[in-house]
Amino acid sequence: MRMTRMSVLAVLVLAAVVRADEPKKAEGEKHWGYTHDITPSKWGQVSPTCASGTHQSPIALSTKHVKAQTPEQALEFSWSKSTGELVDTGHSYQVNLKPGNFITYGGTRYDLAQFHFHSPSEHTVDGKAAPMEAHFVHKTADGKLGVVAVLLRQGSTASPFAPVLTALPASGETRTVEVDLPALLPADHKHFAYSGSLTTPPCSEEVLWIVRVAKDGVSKAAMDALSARYPKDARPVQALHERTVEIAP
Predict the structure, then answer these.
(1) pLDDT of 41-89, one tens digit each?
(2) How is domain 31-248 classified at the architecture level of CATH?
(3) Which three-class secondary structure state does DSSP give residue 233?
(4) Residue ranges per domain, the chain?
């Protein structure tokens, strides 16, 4: 088929418009994801640690293969009602918090910086995943990370997560939210503890993990709102290798 000069010009203009609408990527940047771009099995292309690390997270937790936690590793929460900035990071919804909230584990203070969500849960317990998992990311004064994970189940009553999950912003927007942090913790103090990694690139290791399970959780409507934007943003479980998982009553 022959094309006129005007036809060729129209095609070139259309191609330029399409390219202008595509996301701009930095030169050499590799975009990781869960269902497209570089998926979890290929995250080693973004950071070698994701593929070669031996202390990776999440893991499959078992109530039968754990070690009792020693009193020296006591966990204490110093959380209060706080104001945060809710953002869409492009991988999840995240609430950035002002300084002031922290945990103490084994005598070490970890300051709370932010929390975000994964759907379904990244950790499993006795082979079962939960519909959602919240990660509360803490950091020590010298930069070590500690994450408190809460596995969330579907509940019928009003959830303390509702003020966040009912105010989800559009991409590029930021919203101020009031968060009752203590109310977000399960009443059951039992938790798992182990040494792992970030569950997203660069998958840095030597991260303290505290994992708790909520007996109830968030409403189906709130879960649907999250999954509408991120239907799957969970890394598969990783090999335990020689690590020990502790449990506290």
Answers:
(1) 999 999 999 999 999 999 999 999 899 988 888 999 999 999 999 999 9
(2) Roll (3.10)
(3) coil
(4) 31-248
